[in-house]
Amino acid sequence: MVRRDRLRRMREWWVQVGLLAVPLLAAYLHIPPPQLSPALHAWKASGKFFTYKGMRIFYQDSAGVVGSPEIVVLLHGFPTSSYDWYKIWEGLTLRFHRVIALDFLGFGFSDKPRPHHYSIFEQASIVEALLRHLGLQNRRINLLSHDYGDIVAQELLYRYKQNRSGRLTIKSLCLSNGGIFPETHHPLLLQKILKDGGVLSPILTRLMNFFVFSRGLTPVFGPYTRPSESELWDMWAGIRNNDGNLVIDSLLQYINQRQKFQRRWVGALTSVTIPIHFIYGPLDPVNPYPEFLELYRKTLPRSTVSILDDHISHYPQLEDPMGFLNAYMGFINSF
């Protein structure tokens, strides 16, 4: 009798816990995205949208030096957005006639359809469509990329190498801290779990919050160059816009795509004759020194490399914007 009463009370207790947890969980899952900071709001307000196959893509297009024919297109990394380039934006406008950046599909202020098969091939086609939209499809383009954007740049380079009509004419390529070699790329634990698309993926993406995000992203910055809390909130606001946290697992399929198409994308880098440069933050835990750099130099011996200070990590354009900009200008002015 005593045992039955104890079991009954335990069942009642768990029922009460469940009744309390259900509305709390529902409220948690419907927390609205954070408001945009004044700086991020200004970034959005100064940009534009174009439509690609019924989906809205956000982009920035700034006029720079009058009389210069040079155009640079910036390709951002995962999981952030074109806002990653804001610290070097003005400096680029002092050298280039047009400075252009976009939020890839599924990122930043662009649409984030779900379910959707996100792919590097589609992102490359969106870049091409943007330049057609801007009337620049026949102009020679300098590509500057980071992380995920490096892989998109490799696909664009492959298409350029094939000399197919409608493809970009690439004048130069500068990569930065991207996992262009699967064998030297070390994704974060959460990325490994999400990219495999198991039953946990939709649960984890819904439960993801600012605390989880910030604790996961901060370690890929150097110890002295970590983003402030307000900067992390800007990044998180970009992800949460249009419920972007719910497509992170789909976007991470690029890791599997990179493995599958390694020969195509690494081959593109090794087979073209345009100037190629790599800007490297050597403290990067995702593409660690020296194994990444050794493989890069072995695979691409004719590419030039800029190694930033030894405390700079995975986001060099944010951690050391002046060093990054100087390295890029040195490359652009070398040919």
TrEMBL record:
Matching Pfam families: Abhydrolase_1
Q: GO CC annotation: what is one?
A: endoplasmic reticulum membrane
According to the entry, every stretch annotated as the AB hydrolase-1 domain falls at 71-321
Q: From the UniProt annotation, give the residues forming the signal peptide.
A: none
Parts of the chain that traverse the membrane: 12-31
Q: Tell me where it resides.
A: Endoplasmic reticulum membrane
Tell me, what is an example of a GO biological process annotation in this record? regulation of lipid storage
Gene3D superfamilies for the chain: alpha/beta hydrolase
Identify its protein family. Answer: Belongs to the AB hydrolase superfamily.
Its recorded name reads Mesoderm specific transcript
Species in which this protein is naturally found: Propithecus coquereli
